[in-house]
Design brief:
By secondary structure, the protein is α/β, with parallel strands linked by helices. 42% of the residues lie in helices and 12% in strands. The chain is globular. Bound molecules: S-adenosyl-L-homocysteine (SAH) and iron/sulfur cluster.
């Protein structure tokens, strides 16, 4: 298939499936080169760094694929208190980070007000954007957090296939997940969805559906990573996703949505020592070094073989910066907000001024 500058952002399911499945090396290389070109044209050589703090591995959900699921009785659980989370965030800002990602299992131990106070405290002590990835809460909580200063929310849709979604998330539906994403967007968050690649029973048509769903939702960010079977879960003896298919999905998303922020995910880092650098050549432009205090890292065991569990925040920072430079790219200095989001916001402000 010939990728054509003007029409690529409208690839249909059949075209996407054909590129995901293609065994024609020159066609696949053309896909990669096109995605890299679109990425460089949109963002230049900059790759944005996000410091992630994994502050609790307690979770009330039971997602079949995940090591933090509540039924995994073999996992030692931890919670950082909010003072320790704050100190960790302030230290990360001191290392030069302009975005702090707060991630956890879905853990109601932290009240809505606890999280709001934490966001305010971080914002008052550090000049950073804040991304939340705390799972599902109600609209009032999301509203209080954006009022407290949060900027972005990551909530992957995990899979666009409703039957597969329901199988993987007992008692939940894809439609509910999408409602959360729409609520977050309406409240003014920059929103990140995303999916795993290689889930049991998933087809390339499902992955095409993931891509078109993210386009329809008009997401600002997209986390795409391989599913890695976890022996402590019911899906422990399944196959998991390949590096090749993840890279192809990243490239297709970059072409379909030129301005979306796409991380070279930590899960992808398990697929080879240079897998994340490789992702930059396929359209990724974000990387998320781990700044969680070392003693907690082995317990945030979403999947086995997680990288960077033996390096502290400063080591992870210099390692990741060196990787960005080795890939021929530069480290982005600003907050790295989604350009589309900033433009839409400027339009909203202008419209507001006209009204007033
Ligand atoms: N509890 C929050 C955030 C933590 S989980 C939430 O679910 O949104 C973060 C991500 O880890 C999930 O969205 C999922 O896509 C990913 N994940 C969980 N188990 C995984 C596995 N076995 N392989 C690869 N990714 C996994
Ligand atoms: Fe909990 Fe998130 Fe893991 Fe699901 S994916 S079990 S919500 S931590």
């Amino acid at each position: 298939m010939n990728l054509n500058q003007e029409q690529d952002t409208n690839l249909d399911v059949a075209e996407i499936v054909s590129l995901l499945e293609s065994s024609d090396e020159s066609e696949v290389e053309a896909l990669r080169a096109r995605a890299e070109q679109v990425c460089l044209k949109t963002f230049g050589r900059d790759v944005y760094l996000r410091a992630i703090i994994e502050f609790s591995n307690c979770c009330r959900q039971d997602c079949l694929y995940c090591g933090l699921r509540r039924s995994n009785a073999g996992l030692k659980r931890y919670r950082m208190n909010t003072d320790e989370i704050l100190e960790t965030a302030v230290r990360a800002a001191g290392l030069g980070y302009k975005t702090i990602v707060l991630q956890s299992g879905e853990d109601p131990y932290y009240s809505d007000a606890d999280i709001a106070r934490l966001i305010e405290a971080i914002k008052s002590r550090a000049d950073v954007a804040i991304t939340l990835s705390l799972g599902e809460r109600d609209a009032a909580a999301y509203r209080s957090w954006i009022e407290a200063g949060a900027n972005r929310y990551l909530m992957r849709h995990e899979t666009s296939n409703p039957e597969l979604y329901a199988r993987l998330h007992p008692g939940h539906t894809l439609e509910q997940r999408l409602d959360h994403l729409r609520t977050l967007k309406a409240l003014g968050y920059q929103v990140g969805a995303g999916n795993m690649v290689g889930l049991p029973g998933q087809t390339t048509k499902d992955i095409a559906g993931d891509l078109l769903l993210m386009k329809e939702l008009d997401v600002d960010m997209a986390g795409i990573g391989p599913f890695i079977p976890n022996p402590s879960t019911p899906l422990g003896d399944t196959e998991g996703g390949t590096l090749d298919l993840v890279l192809r999905e990243i490239a297709l998303l970059r072409i379909l949505m030129p301005e979306v922020m796409i991380p070279a995910t930590t899960a992808l880092g398990t697929k080879g020592s240079n897998a994340r650098e490789e992702a930059f050549r396929w359209g990724a432009n974000v990387i998320m070094p781990n700044v969680t205090p070392m003693r907690y890292r082995p317990m945030y065991a979403l999947y086995p073989g997680k990288i960077c569990t033996d390096q502290d925040a400063a080591q992870c920072t210099s390692c990741v910066k060196a990787r960005v430079l080795a890939a021929g790219r530069t480290v982005g200095m600003g907050y790295g907000h989604s350009p589309k989001f900033l433009r839409n916001k400027a339009q909203r402000v202008q419209a507001q001024e006209v009204i007033q």
